[in-house]
Structure formats: C-alpha cells, structure tokens
Write a structure and sequence with these properties.
Layout lengths: L1 H13 L5 H13 L4 H13 L9 H9 L8 H9 L14 H14 L7 H10 L2 H7 L2 H4 L2 H11 L2 H12 L9 H13 L3 H12 L9 H14 L11 H12 L8 H12 L4 H12 L4 H6 L5 H17 L9 H7 L6 H15 L13 H8 L16 H6 L3 H9 L28 H13 L6 H6 L2 H7 L6 H20 L5 H15 L11 H15 L5 H11 L11 H6 L4 H18 L3 H9 L3 H10 L2 H17 L8 H12 L7 H13 L4 H18 L6 H14 L9 H13 L5 H13 L15 H11 L1
Length: 796
C-alpha cells in the first residue's frame, strides 16, 4: 500500500500522468482491501487533476467503498465518483443507508441524472425515507446543503392534499420553524400548491422585520418575499399586524447614513404596491420618509450613495401612485433640485415622479422655464426639508441657456437614445451602458424644457441657442422611434421659426436653414410625424454645430451645401460627392472625411441607416481609405462596420459581402495593425449574425488574427471571448480546428499570460488525454476551456 501511496503522491506533486496499467493496479488494490482515508484522499486529488481516468474505475469500487464506510459522513471520493462516473446509476439499492449518507448520494446522482425523479419507484422510496415535517422543523445540514433534490421531489411527489396537510401542521408551529433558504423555498412551493401563498408571505414579512439589521438572512429572505409579492394580485388582502413598526424600521435603517439596509425599504415598497392598505398608512409612510433627518441630504446628493437615493425615490413613486392626494405643489422644487436632467436611473425615476405631479393637476407652469440640479438649488433656495420655499422671479432664457453645457449635449447627440419615449409615465427604467448616462441629457425632459423656453415672448439669442447645441439636439430627436418625441421636436422647430420671423433681418441665415430643412423633409413624403434616419438627423445636427461654432474648414463646406439649393436633399444625406469635392488640400480632405465618418459611426443605429449606407454605395470608399488612410480613419471605418453588422444580418443580400470584403482587406493589409484595430476587428466578428453564409470565413479570419496577434496580453482576452461567441453562434465549424491548431491557440493564451496555470494545465490535459470526466464548475472563470470542450464535443 505504501508504494502505491508514494507513487500517487509523486504523481500529484509533479502533475504526472500515470499510465492506465499503473492506475488500474492501484484501483484493484483498493477494491480488494480496506484502505485508509489518507490513501483515498490521494486518489481523489489525482482524479481531480486527471479526471479522464475515472472511466478505468469499476463500479464495484464504489460499492466496496460504500459498504465499508463506518463514519456518519461519506468520503468525498464516493461523491466525486457519483458525480462523474457514467456507470454509476440510480438503480443501486441505497435504501438501507442512513438518511444523511443517502441524501448526499441521491443529490449527487440528481445533479448528473435529473431524470431520475421521473422514476415512480425512486419517488416512492424517497417519500418513505424522509419525514418531511421533521426535516423542515429540524432543518439539518443534509437538507439545507441538498435543496435541489428536495425541490424537485416536491414538484413531482406531493399532491394538493398532502401539501395542505403539511402546511397546516407547520402553521401551528411557526415559532419553532427554522428560517433557512432551503426550508423557505420548499415551504413556499408547498404553499403555492395548496393556495396558501398569501398566508405564508405574511409569515415571512413578520419574520423579516423581526430580524436584526446585521442578520445574514435579510437579503435572501427579502428577495423571496418580493418574488412572492410579485405573484399576488394588486390590492390583495395582506394582513399586517403592525404597519407602524414596519414603516419605522424600513425608514430608520434605509435612510441611516452609515451602512444603510435597503432590503426593508424594498419590501415596504412592494407591500404598498400590492396590499389593500388604508390611506393613513400611505400618508404616514410619506411623512416619516420626508421627515427623516437624512432625507434632504440623500435627495440633494450627486454621486455618493446612489443606491440609497434610488431606493428612496422608488418608494416615493410607489406612495404617490398609491395615494395621489399626498402630492403637493411645494414638493416640486426639491425634486427639480434633486434632478440632473440625465439618463441615469435616478433621474429617470425623478422625471416619472414629476410627470405624475403634472398629471395630477399640480401646477408645474409655476416653475417654467424648468431648471434642474444645482441651478435649481440656487434659484429656488431649497433648504432642509420637502415642504419647500417660495419662488423667486422666473429665470431668463439667457440664464437657462448658460446652464446647458455644449460638451454634454454633444455626448447626447452622439449616443442619442432613439428608443426613449416622451411620455415616460409607465416606461420601464433603462440601464444605458454604451456611455455614462449621467453625462447625457434626457430628451424627454430637454424638449419640454426648450419648449417652455421658446413659448415665452422674451427675446431669444438665436446664435447662443444654436451655439449651445440646443437646435442640434432638437434635430437629433427627429430620428427617434417615438412618434410623440418627434412631434414635440417639430413643435419646438415651429416655435423657433416664430422667433426667427420676429427678428428676421438679424436671423436671415438661420431662417433659410430652417426653410431648407423643412422643405427637404417635406420632399421625403414620409408618414407624419416624419422620422428621419439617424444618419440624416445627425448630419443636420452636426451642420448646425459646425456653422454656429465656426468650426474651421467644416463651416464653409456646410454653408456651401446649405446655399447651393433651396431644399435639403435628404435622400442623399450626407451629400458625399458634394462634400468630398468642396475642399482642396490633403489636410482639409482628412478633416472632412473624419467629420463625415464620425456621423456615420454615431448615426448607424437601425435598418434605415443601413439602407442609407447601402444606397450611397460607400463600401468601396471604406476599402480604399482602409488600405491607404491613417490609423484614425481605419478605426472609424471599423466602428462603422461593427455598428452595421450589429443592426443588419450578415446574409448574402445583407451585410455578408461587406463582412467578407472587410476580412480580406484586413488580412491583406501590408503593415502591422494596432491593438485597438485588432480589438475592433474582434468586435466586428462578435456583431455578425449566426448566418451560415458567413460562418466558415468568420472563424477562419479569427484564426488568422488570433494566431498572428494573440500573444499580446491586451488582445488575447478579447480574442478568446470572440471565439466563444463564434463557436456558440455558428454550427459545423469544428472542422476548422485540428489538434495542432488548438494547441497553437492554447500557446497564445499561455504566452500572453491571460490563462491561469490551472486552466492552461487542464486544456493541455484535455488535448492530450481526452475530455472524459471533465466538468467545469460555474464559479470558475475560464477563458478557453469551455470553448475547447464545446469544439471537441462537436468533433466526436
């Protein structure tokens, strides 16, 4: 035995593969003898390294180990064999085992063979083995650690009458029921099957609010309650014995400055939304919330504790929806001061709150033209509580325009939220990820704000209005998917036209621009309110910015296009030939091409934009500039291509030919590409659809790029991510990967040091010895191993 132990130990330390005969000899020795736990530990460690040899272990070893186990708990090697060994089935007679051992074994089998619970014999034996009531009351570790099999058993083995009997028995002993995640999940299913969900949810709510804020059970228990409440009908008769205690605890611990606990507030919010509660409860909740010493600080905070502010605002929104009578005009200034006019989650909630105030006849006109954030704080002089101050004089149009930063408007125009609706009453919160949403203006607020600004008879500086980017933002709104948003934008343009007409001599140039755009849109003969493609809308917006801010080189070209004809030819926007022939000199040419490409990059957002690109026949220009242009030009082209592949499928009649030509252009590019260019090429591949037309060339192109540049640690992670995307998206591509090719891919990951030593070793082991017995835990963040296994399985 010692020789075998020494051999195993050395093999583990050196990660050396034992030949099949050596390993078989060790296993045969264990089968014929009772060995120590230390010996079994070594076998387990070895199998964790080289799981492929688990197929050499006979079924009788498992039976031998099981029959000679005297301890209460099973050795981990037994469970490892059950999880990995395909010959160990649930047909074994395990009924004589102690309940703890039996549970761990059955749970391990269930993970590998979930269909076992479809066998009525297994279900019957399991039901006879387990005393369900005692198990729930005692909540032993073997139950809590193997919840999946008991949940599965409940779904199949318990009928309505059995559930009703079990629930009634538990209900009389709630005081001794142990709150664990597994027990609560099980009883929740029992309650659902016998229509006692409401009763059980009430018990969980009482339990939650009896816990200390430091309890580890708060998070999962509150999530369970919230999920239960979502399934209940609106105004359901939830019986809460002490509403005051729940409200006070939620507000106290949710608004505390240090280590706030948001779960209580979340449950209170769901309760208010779902329960049929008295008006006094809603009013008291609002009063306690607004009267808290930290309330104003939370509301007026900018960056710190965003989650806390978000939860407070969600609760306020729920309260005013439940009981509109608690809304008052004096609340509005604080909300405006808290609002930053952005697309952040917090500001989206605040705008919905303001919308509800206006909808419920709160006179918002008192606060026009609307101010926001720090500008509103200084103007409205908001102090330390919700019941706020008197109004100062109305802000002037010049003052409001001075508060609009050009940089922020440019950012919004570049990433315009085309799906944003004007009427946001019931619109779901959107988590914008492409850019920082807190630095983008919300068009749902911007258009009404500009409309209120232009609706007054106060004199307006058109130059300042346009230089600040306001007109460009309005024009960008013409590409919105929302009819109301476009209608509002056209309304603002009409108001602006009236200001231009009043002082026409001073604003003749912008009056001509307005007529030029209006006639161009009319010539498109679109269904009202006309929706421009985003490329068209951005071109008009960027023209205004260039002309109003006197951008050198671009301004004169835009003016020539504007003055060349009485109406914009929007079917040919941008007017490429005019644009490219309107300048001379290499420097001007480069400037204009990049300005033009930036419009295409930011404007390619939908199939209508793809149609514009296709009609303008731009791809040949892209290929020429990619071959002989600067790096900045190539990066812009790759970004345009990535956006194009994302919005239109890579079929033969779609973007497929463009994708193939781009791959050829990159493959034949004579110089070394930069890291940023390679990363963008990978993003282009990820954006391609799962069309078979493109599958083999796409994977072949990935191989070329990765084997050429994959040893760079800045490139390798994106390369592996792209490969995983392609393998999961395309079918029948495994033929492109032979063992030599897979080893080269693995070598790139090793040289770049992006693969951990553990993953590199596992990949090498799989390539050399096969993939039998290999399993990947969900917690492991492997880059290449899951993809490698998928490729190898497809080849079998």
């Amino acid at each position: 035995m010692k020789d075998y132990q020494v051999k195993l130990k050395k093999s583990i330390e050196n990660k050396k593969y034992l030949d099949n005969q050596q390993f078989t000899n060790i296993i045969e020795y264990i089968c014929e003898n009772i060995v120590s736990h230390e010996f079994l530990d070594l076998v387990l460690k070895y199998l964790e390294i080289y799981s492929q040899q688990i197929s050499l272990i006979p079924k009788r070893l498992f039976i031998h180990l099981l029959s000679n186990t005297k301890e209460k708990t099973l050795h981990p090697l037994i469970l490892f064999l059950v999880l990995r060994h395909n010959d160990i089935d649930y047909d074994l007679n395990l009924d004589n085992l102690p309940v703890e051992q039996w549970t761990y074994l059955m749970s391990a089998l269930y993970k590998r063979l979930p269909e076992m619970l479809c066998d009525p014999v297994i279900v019957r034996n399991t039901m006879n083995k387990i005393n369900t009531y005692k198990m729930l009351i005692d909540s032993p570790p073997w139950f809590n650690e193997n919840g999946d099999i008991f949940i599965g058993l409940h779904l199949i083995g318990f009928d309505e009458d059995e559930c009703d009997e079990l629930f009634n028995k538990l209900k009389t002993n709630w005081s001794i029921f142990k709150i664990t995640m597994t027990a609560v999940s099980f009883v929740d299913l029992v309650a659902a099957k016998c229509n006692k969900e409401l009763e059980f949810t009430q018990f969980l709510i009482t339990t939650l609010f009896s816990l200390s804020p430091a309890s580890d059970d708060i998070v999962w228990l509150s999530n369970q309650i919230i999920n239960n409440l979502k399934l209940l009908e609106i105004n359901c008769p939830i019986q809460i014995s002490d509403w005051d205690d729940i409200i006070m605890k939620a507000v106290k611990y949710g608004l505390v400055e240090e280590n706030p606990e948001y779960c209580f507030i979340r449950v209170l919010r769901k309760l208010v939304k779902k329960a049929n509660i008295d008006k006094s409860i809603t009013s008291k909740s609002f009063e306690l919330l607004a009267g808290h010493s930290q309330f104003s600080n939370i509301m007026l905070s900018r960056d710190a504790k965003r989650i806390q502010k978000e939860e407070v605002l969600k609760l306020i929104e729920t309260l005013i929806k439940k009981e509109p009578s608690i809304m008052a005009v004096s609340h509005v200034p604080l909300f405006l001061c808290s609002y930053n006019a952005s697309l952040s989650v917090i500001d989206q909630i605040l705008l919905r709150i303001l919308f509800r105030y206006e909808e419920n006849s709160i006179p918002m006109s008192n606060y026009r033209p609307y101010l926001w954030g720090s500008f509103a704080i200084s103007h409205y002089q908001v102090k330390n509580h919700l019941i706020s101050k008197t109004l100062n004089s109305f802000p002037s149009t010049t003052e409001v325009l001075s508060y609009i930063p050009l940089k922020r408007l440019k950012e919004t125009i570049s990433c315009f939220p085309i799906n944003r609706t004007l009427h946001i009453k019931d619109q779901k919160i959107v988590h914008y990820t492409s850019n920082d949403p807190s630095q983008m203006f919300d068009p749902s607020f911007f258009l009404p704000m500009i409309s209120s600004l232009l609706a007054t008879e106060a004199p307006l500086s058109i130059e300042k209005f346009n230089r600040s980017g306001c007109l460009s933002m309005v024009l960008a709104c013409l590409g919105s998917y929302d009819c109301s948003m476009r209608s509002a934008a056209y309304h603002v343009l009409t108001l602006l036209r009236s200001h231009l007409f009043c002082r026409r001599a001073e604003n003749l140039f912008w009056d001509h621009f307005s007529s030029w755009v209006a006639q161009g849109i009319q010539d498109l003969h679109l269904k009202p309110p006309p929706q421009l493609s985003m490329i068209q809308a951005l071109f008009l917006g960027r023209m205004v910015l260039a002309m109003a801010n006197h951008e050198k080189g671009i301004e004169s070209t835009c003016c020539r296009i504007l003055l060349a004809r009485p109406a914009a030819r929007l079917n040919h926007i941008p007017e490429l030939k005019t644009f490219l022939t309107a300048f001379s000199g290499l420097k001007d040419k480069t400037l204009h091409i990049r300005w033009f490409f930036e419009i295409l990059r930011d404007g390619t957002r939908s199939t209508s934009d793809w149609q514009v690109l296709k009609n303008m026949d731009l791809f040949n220009l892209f290929l020429v500039i990619f071959k002989c242009g600067h790096q900045k030009d190539r990066l812009l082209i790759l970004k345009i291509m990535e956006a194009t592949f994302r919005i239109h499928p890579a079929t033969n009649g779609g973007t497929g030919p463009w994708a193939l030509s781009l791959m050829v252009a990159i493959s034949k590019y004579p110089k070394e590409l930069s890291t940023e260019e390679i990363l963008l090429a990978f993003k282009c591949l990820q954006s391609l659809s799962g069309s078979s037309y493109i599958s083999l060339p796409a994977v072949d192109f990935w191989l070329f790029l990765f084997l050429e540049y994959g040893k760079n640690p800045d490139i390798s992670p994106e390369g592996f991510d792209t490969l995983n995307n392609l393998v999961s998206k395309f079918q029948n591509i495994s033929e492109l990967f032979d063992n030599s090719c897979l080893k080269d891919i693995l070598n790139c990951g090793i040289v770049s040091s992006v693969l951990s030593d553990d993953e590199a070793f596992k990949c090498q082991s799989v390539l050399e010895y096969g993939m039998d017995g290999i399993q990947i835990q969900e917690s492991n963040n492997y880059l290449f191993l899951p993809t490698l296994l998928r490729i190898l399985k497809a080849k079998v």
